[in-house]
Amino acid sequence: MKYSGILRIGFKLLVNDKGKFSALLIGITFAVFLMLNMTAVFAGILDRACSTVTNVGAEVWVMDPSVNVASAAIPMPDYVLDAVRSMDGVSYAVPLFMGGALVKLSNGTFQAVYVVGLDDSSLLGRPEIEQGNILDIYNDNTVFAVDDAEFPKLGNPKVGTSFELNDFRCTIVGIARVASNGLNGIPTLYTTYNRAIHFIPSTRYTTSYVLVKPKNQAAIAGIQRQVAKLGYVAYTAAGFRQRISDYFTYQTGIGTNILLMTVISFIVGLSISGQTFYTFILENLDKFGALKAIGAKGCELVYMILFMASLMALTGYGLGVGLVTLMILLAKARLPNYAATITFGNLSAAFGMVLVIAGVSSYIGARKVLRVEPFDIFRD
Hints:
The chain is an alpha+beta fold. It folds into 2 domains: 4-48 and 253-379, no CATH class; 77-231, no CATH class. Helices cover 53% and strands 18% of the residues. It is elongated and about 90 Å long. The model has no long low-confidence stretch (mean pLDDT 85).
């Protein structure tokens, strides 16, 4: 390798000064830890916010244009369901009801719950059943409880447990499991559509969403155009998740606060690493002058400094990612409600910021080294 010798010298200079090398690693590791943790928490919040879309699993969702989040549905007239069923490209369409209610537990306390009413004939969107029989949902006044992080708020009920739901006596006939926990900290109950609208007082319109199964992927665009003519919108599952994510990112304070904390973490890491690396260059300025005196070119010294900055940045990045991963694993094991997810986007954003830190540190160091003259070093 053309620059292997000069890079080996740079490596020894860097690691031999254990104090400065450790300070550089700690600064970048801490910055990566904060940046990645903030973005991972935000990704976890968005994933939880889209839990309804993930758990139901419908391909196309028809809804009111004003809906921003799945839990805040705006009821639609019944004719929308009939119109969607008659559209070209629709294989079948079913209604979905979502609403809030109060449950009176056996100890006399009240607990808010989220009730999902599935289509009576198809039960499209039903969760995976852990205990009980799915057909028992057709018995009188029965529900399925979701065993997630909020399940203990119902008193950890078992199959056969009864309680009052909006003054109706209900019985849990099954315990279900879903792919994603919710964001609002409220337990979820599943029942049939007609029973849900019977349990929960509502306006004259009761259809929260129309779930559509298109004949093929090419038919989705046509379905969306036909739904738009009715004054409503049709989103694919990915499109609905993106709409929810955009709402939380740009129309609430969550996105702004997370972005601010991430920028602060980046500035802290940049200032610590930049200052420490500059101090390291100053303390070893005589060695760089000596390298110049024996014939090292300016470009070789720049490569060496870039290599040193990249080495400490990438090492700190790896340590930071490992530390965040360990923390998230431990937190999720102890705190079921903890929402944090490391995604490729999180890793890429943190990696890009680390490269900026390495680039700025290299620039600061290279400017100082290129200005030094061997004569000044040996004269001292």
